[in-house]
# Entry
Amino acid sequence: MATKVFTPQLATIARPVRKTNKHKCFFETSPSRRTSPFLRQFTTTRTHQDEIATDGRQTPRWQRAPEKLTAPVLLRPPSDWKVNEDPERLDQVFRNFLGPNGHEMLTDEVKWLAVTHKSFDHGKRGYNDRLAFLGKKIVILQISLAMVNSPVSAPPPPTPGPYGREPFRHPALAGLHSLNWRSRHLTMNWENLSAIAEQCGLPGVMRWKPKKPSNLKGSGLRMIQMQSLFAIIGAIALQRGGEVANNVVRNKILTPLGVT
# Structure
């Protein structure tokens, strides 16, 4: 008679299958934990509305730095350098530069942003680098167009080639010879533009932190004046359009410099 061989493998196969779910969530097996107050949420970051509700104040960013960007402990002692915080004084500067209603061309937030350098309050309230970049390109374009269209001097006579060919000449290209880096730099330099900024009182409302308060020129005062002037032009281009910004450059910058 044949004997039955019983092995552990056969015992495993013959064992009845028991339905188990090893990947069953722990919270599904414990219904009481679903409503537990100790469950961790998906995110712990508060929304902007929650911050406003708990803070109770809606202070604009130009007036106060965000609390999340402020360190609890100051590593350096606070500086004694004071900047302008009076909105009326800032509006007067815009009226001096743009005209009687110049303070209405930009919003309050943008006006403060245009005169704020990145050295002020570690850039926590915003700064005018991007506005100045756009405004500088607009000023360069208008100066280049004015130099091309100005009949300052006659173009040099064409030099004859070795094969007797004459260069192409057109009335629209008559002033192209005056467009060069040297002549543009003589017009658009930091001395001329900083003089315009000083006439409208822009240094008194700029927000920046000089490296040496006893030596403002050595700390880059004139360059920051020129940057703030460019930032105002860039802000006008974004809020009022390119045509308004071009007119401001021609009337308020090029005309005082004698470029028409």
Observations:
- The radius of gyration is 34 Å.
- The first helix runs from residue 8 to 14.
